[in-house]
Amino acid sequence: MQFRLLGQTEVLIDGATVPLPGPRQRALLAALLLSANRPITVDHLVDAVWGEEPPASAGPNLRQHLTALRRRLGTEASRIVGRPGRGYLIEVRPGELDLDVFTGLVQQARGRAEPEEVVDLLSQALALWRGEPLQDVLPYPIFTAAATRFREYRIATLEEWFDARLSLGHHEDVLPELRAQVVEHPLRERLWGLLMRGLCQAGRQGDALKAFLQARRTLAEELGIAPGVELQELHMSILAAESGLPGPRPTPRKQEDVAAPWHLPRAVSHFTGRADHLAELDRLADVAGRIDAGTVVISAIAGGGGVGKTALAVHFGHHAVGRFPHGQLFVNLRGFDPSRPPTSAGDALEYLLQALGVDSGKIPEQEDQRAALYRSLLSDKRMLVVLDNAVDAEQVRPLLPGKPGCLTVVTSRNRLAGLVARDGAHRLTLGALSPAEAVELLGRIIGGDRLDAEPAAVHRIARLCGHLPLALRIAAERAMIDSRLSLTALADDLADERNRLDVLEVDDDGATSIRAVLSWSYRALPTKAARMFRLLSLHPGPEFGLEAAAALCDLTPDETGPLVDALADCHLLEVTHDGRYRFHDLVRVYAAHSMAQDEPSERAAATHRLLDWYLRTAAAGRSMLTPDAQRRLPDGKPGRCPALVFTTREEALAWYELERVNLVASVRTGVEVGHLTLVSLLSRNMLDYFYIKSRWAEQMEVYRNGTDAARRSGRGSDEAAILIAMGSALRERRKYSQAINAIRRAIDLQRSMGEGEASGRAIIGLAITYIQIRCYDEAKERLYEALAQVRTDEDRYGEASALVNLGYVCLDQNEFEDALRWSRESLDIWRAIEDPRGEGYSLDCMAKAHEGLRRPGDALSYFEQAVAVLRSGR
User: Fold this and answer.
1) Which of the chain's ends, N or C, has fewer CB atoms near its CB within 10 Å?
2) Same domain, yes or no, for 832 and 739?
3) How far apart (Å, rounded) are the C-alpha atoms in residues 277 and 469?
């Protein structure tokens, strides 16, 4: 099977082209291939197929197109795979995608020293191009950005190909091709330099000097800059009659990031006004594009809630997609989220580093180290970085690139004076739309005919909405929902509601009009949708999926889908880039205010259902992470929304990562409202995830809340398990005295409940802590105690663990024969219970024992075995 993007979008099965009728199927396939073997969100697929203004039926239609595309692939239909909560991916094997083959050949060429080999590999790579990339799909941002990157990568490869051919003396063949490329790309200095080198090799120094003058004139006229150092040095060498030299060779280029991150949310439809602000952002993008400008360019967009700060930043990003070939990053810093504290700079850096392709296991723990890695990854890149909803300059400062090249756009309700004064940010203050722009926005949504029919009412609606985009959109949606409603009646309703409704204490920049519109829009909702709107305010996290919404409302996912879509259609919910949901800050406050009118029992029951669903899904995930772990489930029947089911360990881990913030917030909320048993069980079901993915601040919060809930609800077994995990985490942070105290409390609890096997493993954890603080005698005594316990309980895993740790203690005390004996005994058990990780540790201990006994041959052999076993067990 073959997939092709470097030209027309094609699929070949057994050499035959698969017909793909219609641009939407081709766009869908192209979007999947651009993220081959990685999930692409539903939101991005919709953008790829319909652009920035998709129809209301885009979701169902997308599923139909996916089904049709699968049918086209026939026996290969299983290549298109759904990932719950993450979107869809297409499975592509090595050598099947022409883009991958191209980049692979280029990478090989860059690793070769002989020009002949470089020319051969690059010739094969360039032969894969059949025309303009993605030429047959619709010109939507996701494709125009990708096509721009691919063309950039191709011309850079051509330059390396010309360079290698000139090194072989093939200037006669190369010169005509170089001339054509210089005409097509007159601003690429490296092409001019190669042309000058080729002319010199042909004995045409005069023409080479003319080429330099032409390059200098073109750069000055087009960009207002002088030629770079390399081109000027080549010019000087020609003037000095050193034309026999090949000239300065350019510094090898880094491989372009073909799969650049594309993280901007969907652009808002019917964007109106802000021409001056967009022009200023365009100007700043030009400055940022001049790497030699010597400054890091930052734009701070300040304004009140609902004024359209995020909409402006995102609209500009989509508009300027071609100017940022290395990608666009977006992170919501939640500076004014009423449900939780602002995102810390460390957490934001973790998200950004993952977006830049850093594996979560390789992200440093310390914030300053994360910031340094982040800055190094952005070095020499042309990217747009949008830091949305910042609370202050201190939150933003660690997230700023370190070198020129990127444009950083920060949005905030605060003025960010420190960012302007200290970091040179350019402030754009965003106010309400002008009256004319407000009327224009209403007209774009409602339609010109209705606008012309009741012009006075339209101006009145705009005024009552405070000319704020959020309020205007909600009001216009109401008019669209009921076309029989006159705009005069709509204006009367708005005026009346504003005077009658309770005041929400949010801010003073037009909140009265927002309150009026929200209240009026809410009251127009059907009963079920209004109930959902209120209940969703109880979700403790910043965003949520369809199933969590269903659990809160005691509905099935199928029943929930139309209701959340209805809320999103009237702007009472926002849809995130990965198909999840969230409230605008002001809307969440209003929803919570509305929920406060319901009976306390309704609120308590909804929170209980949500925690129960998170708990049951976390238990299902834990079964995949640790198959032999005992399930910890609550009594009673589950709600109408079933827990998710996972088929692989990777799926479970991905769900934990996706819901991590929500799980931590749920534990916190559960303690506050008194659902202690659910909190105790949920915390325990998160232990294995935190063992795999250490998240220090979050896991310690869960451990503290979990032990508190377990103690207050009388669940000693849960409390002990969480204390052991807490001890392990504290030990990893070198907080040894706290770790010892936590594990000792766990042991006392387990012994009081008669949990022999559990206390045996806890004692091993205590011993490991003593090993790390070099209290070897105490560690050995605890390990003997643990060994007796686990053997009594016939706990084979615990026995092997105690034995191998005894081996390591003996190593530290230079008792090499004893170390060999203990580790050999543990090896037999690890192999019997088929645990490759434990087997690897035993082999490592045996190797070190032989090393201590001065048996280098045996030590090397066991080290090699340990490496092989540990690799095979990953």
Assistant:
1) C
2) no
3) 15
C-alpha to C-alpha distance for 212 and 719, rounded to whole angstroms: 76
Q: What range does the domain containing 614 cover?
A: 606-799
pLDDT tens profile 373-409: 999 898 878 889 999 989 888 999 999 998 888 899 9
Residues contacting 860, CB < 8 A, separation 6+: 847
Q: Which of 409, 429, 449 lies at the terminal end of a domain, its last residue?
A: 429
Residue 26 is predicted with a pLDDT of 85
Pairing of strands 581-582, 574-575: antiparallel
In 3D, which of 446, 459, 527 has the Cα closest to residue 488? 459
Least confident of 284-298, 338-352, 724-738: 284-298
Residues 804 and 791 in one domain: no
Mark whether 352 and 308 lie in a shared domain: yes
In this structure, is residue 240 part of a structural domain? no
Q: Which of 749, 771, 799 is the last residue before a domain boundary?
A: 799
Give residue 207's pLDDT band: very low, low, confident or very high (50, 70, 90). confident
Asked whether residue 667 falls in the same domain as residue 755, the answer is yes
What's CA 695's distance to the chain center, in Å?
16
Q: Are residues 294 and 375 in the same domain?
A: yes
- In a 10 Å sphere around its CB, with 0-12 CB exposed, 13-18 middle and 19+ buried, how is residue 420 labelled? middle
Residue 11 lies in a domain: no
- pLDDT of 628 reads 62
Distance of alpha carbon 661 from alpha carbon 347, whole angstroms: 11
**What type of residue is 698?**
E
pLDDT for position 535: 96
How far apart, in whole angstroms, are the C-alpha atoms of residue 502 and residue 740? 54
- Percentage helix, strand, coil for the chain under 3-state DSSP, each rounded to 5: 65, 5, 30
CATH number for the domain spanning 591: value is 1.10.10.10
CB atoms within 10 A of CB 344: 14
Residue type, 375: R
pLDDT in tens, 426-456: 988 888 888 999 999 998 888 888 888 899 9
Contact (Cβ atoms closer than 8 angstroms) between residue 616 and residue 638: yes
Q: Do residues 517 and 559 both lie within one domain?
A: no
Put residue 17 in one of left, alpha, beta given phi > 0 → left and psi -120 to 50 → alpha.
beta
Return d(Cα 825, Cα 845) in angstroms, integer.
Answer: 11
Q: Taking a C-beta distance cutoff of 8 angstroms, is the pair 631, 682 a contact?
A: no
pLDDT band at 135 (very low <50, low <70, confident <90, very high): confident
| pLDDT value for 619 | 93
d(CA 795, CA 38): 41
Q: What angle do CA 66, 68, 74 make, to 5 degrees?
A: 105
Separation in Å, CA 482 to CA 468, 490, 504: 22, 10, 27
Kindly state the tokens that stand for 808.
């390591």
| Residue ranges in 330-465 assigned as alpha helix (H) | 345-355, 367-378, 393-396, 417-423, 435-446, 448-453, 455-464
Distance (Å) of CA 741 to CA 159, 691, 726, 767, 789: 64, 19, 10, 13, 21
- Whether 533 maps to a domain, the answer reads yes
Segment holding 146, helix H or strand E: helix 141-167
Residues 83/655, Cβ–Cβ less than 8 Å:
no
> What is the per-residue pLDDT across 272-310, written as a single tens digit (0 to 9) for each?
889 889 889 988 888 887 655 566 788 999 876 678 888
Residues 283 and 378 in one domain: yes
| 677: CATH | 1.25.40.10
Helix count (H) and strand count (E) of the chain? 39, 12
Shared domain check, 281 and 406:
yes
Give me 869's structure tokens: 């076993």
Please state the domain count of the chain.
Answer: 5
Q: Is 305 helix (H, G, I), strand (E, B) or coil?
A: coil
The answer as to whether 457 is a domain residue is yes
